[in-house]
Design a protein that fits this description.
With about 250 residues, this protein is α/β, with parallel strands linked by helices. Helices cover about 35% and strands about 15% of the residues. The chain has helices at about 35-50, 70-85, 105-110, 135-145, 165-175, 190-205, 215-220, 230-240; strands spanning about 20, 55, 60, 95, 100, 120-125, 150-155, 175-180, 210. Strand 8 (about 175-180), helix 6 (about 190-205) and strand 9 (about 210) form a beta-alpha-beta unit. The model has no long low-confidence stretch (mean pLDDT about 95).
Length: about 250
């Protein structure tokens, strides 16, 4: 695949004050992201140096692996907000939603309306990297029947769809929005994921972007996306993220 000639630019040219990162793992000690409060603040400050100052952080809610309740997530969010205040860091806005695995437990939460949304009605969801749920389209229908709309995290990372792109259009036709992982534009998840992300971009079926930041290594790799060609390709998505600004 032939890419545009790369010309590096500062990440601060990608992200303006209205950009909102809608996918990250910055809350301390509740999933595979930040392990403690100090690490949470370090990640936030590093992202601020890139120009990212608005966050809807999204810890995993995944069966018995990360059985985070809405209350747990909200409590951890308050810890981070209080620490930011204690350090007199006043130019950061941070809220919390969640990245929900579409499993049986999610369906139970949905039935109870025990859901943390990106905004009034958008829910960030994911599925296993090995296969889609057998009842995937039933879950997507139930989400919308409840008055919500699903935002599928990193569709480019589901390798089982790579051989037939019609699956992506089927998901879109079922009412699913797509969120690109910015790191998928690098080789972080493998060259095949990178290739798929560019193909989906050219198809014009992404709606939003997210960093999916878990740790410092991710933030070092994020620098690699900073090219003029990438900015041209995803600028409309960066602007779409601005709708989450409060």
């Amino acid at each position: 695949m032939v890419f545009f000639k790369k010309k590096e630019i500062p990440l601060t040219e990608f992200f303006n004050n209205n950009f909102v990162d809608i996918h990250s793992h910055l809350l301390p000690g509740i999933d595979d992201g930040a392990k403690d409060l100090n690490y949470s603040i370090e990640l936030i400050l590093k992202m601020r140096s890139y120009g990212i100052k608005n966050f809807i952080t999204t810890p995993h809610v995944l069966g018995n692996v990360y059985p985070n309740s809405s209350e747990t997530i909200k409590n951890k969010l308050e810890e981070v907000k209080k620490e930011l205040q204690n350090r007199n860091i006043t130019d950061i806005t941070i809220r919390a939603a969640a990245e929900y695995m579409m499993d049986e437990q999610f369906s139970k939460r949905l039935a109870k309306d025990d859901i943390l949304t990106l905004n009034d009605h958008l829910i960030l969801v994911e599925m296993s990297y090995f296969n889609a749920p057998i009842n995937l389209y039933e879950i997507l229908f139930d989400i919308q029947l409840k008055g919500y709309k699903p935002v599928l995290a990193h569709p480019e990372r589901y390798n089982f769809y790579h051989s037939d792109f019609n699956n992506y259009y089927k998901l879109k036709n079922a009412g699913c929005l797509f969120q690109l992982n910015l790191l998928s534009l690098t080789e972080q998840y493998g060259k095949h994921v990178q290739k798929t992300s560019y193909k989906l971009l050219k198809e014009g079926i992404y709606d939003f972007v997210g960093s999916d930041t878990h740790h410092h290594n991710h933030l070092e790799l994020l620098k690699k996306i900073a090219t003029k060609s990438n900015l041209k390709m995803i600028n409309h998505l960066l602007k779409n993220n601005e709708r989450f600004k409060q």
